[in-house]
């Protein structure tokens, strides 16, 4: 199965480093994270839209027009989310404003073959997890958020709140943090899986 082309929002340097630190927390707990990907273009990102068809010049121009006025964009991290079915993706769930959701919907409408499932904006931390490993991952990140070492006595577990199930999210749970974090989305880029390259579309440092 061929990989999809994607339009991705990338983070500013500080928040990019913060996500990489969370990858490292998972690795330290023995859980495979996205930090294991060594591709030259691989970095924390939020996928806006994807399709097996490459975007044409008209779509890329539209993407630039829609997103340039929005970037940089700071979004709240509302918790952790598990996405998938038998194999799970663990991610930071974010809450973009309505203008960003409208821009995303417009791109999906215009892009041939685009994934039309409901958009669940997130920054992935680990993928292809079993339910057992996903539980360990949640525990590791909960411990980090509580400022304790893994395995320390009295580790506080954060409350889980359920999210509505969607075709994308067969199993979905949100882990609410004690203090709300945020991420700065700095640029939009096009990931081309055929050439394994990225191209700037809007914003800076794509």
Give a quick rundown of the structure.
By secondary structure, the protein is an alpha+beta fold. It has helices spanning about 15-30, 55-65, 100-110, 130-145, and strands spanning about 5-10, 45-50, 75-85, 90-95, 120-130, 160, 175, 180-190, 195-205. The protein contains 4 helices and 9 strands.
What this model shows, in words?
The structure is a single chain. About 25% of the residues lie in helices and about 35% in strands. The chain contains four helices and nine strands; from the N terminus they run βαβαββαβαββββ. A hairpin with a 3-residue loop joins strand 3 and strand 4. The relative contact order is 0.25. It starts with a strand and ends with a strand. The chain is globular and about 45 Å long. Helix 2 runs antiparallel to helix 3. The protein has about 210 residues and is α+β, with helices and mostly antiparallel strands. Strands 1, 2, 3, 4, 5, 6, 7, 8 and 9 form a nine-stranded antiparallel sheet that branches.
What's the topology here?
Blueprint: E1 5-11, H1 13-28, E2 45-51, H2 57-67, E3 73-84, E4 88-95, H3 98-110, E5 122-129, H4 131-145, E6 160-162, E7 173-175, E8 181-192, E9 197-203
Antiparallel strand pairs: 1-2, 1-8, 3-4, 3-7, 3-8, 4-5, 6-7, 8-9
Helix pairs in contact: 2-3
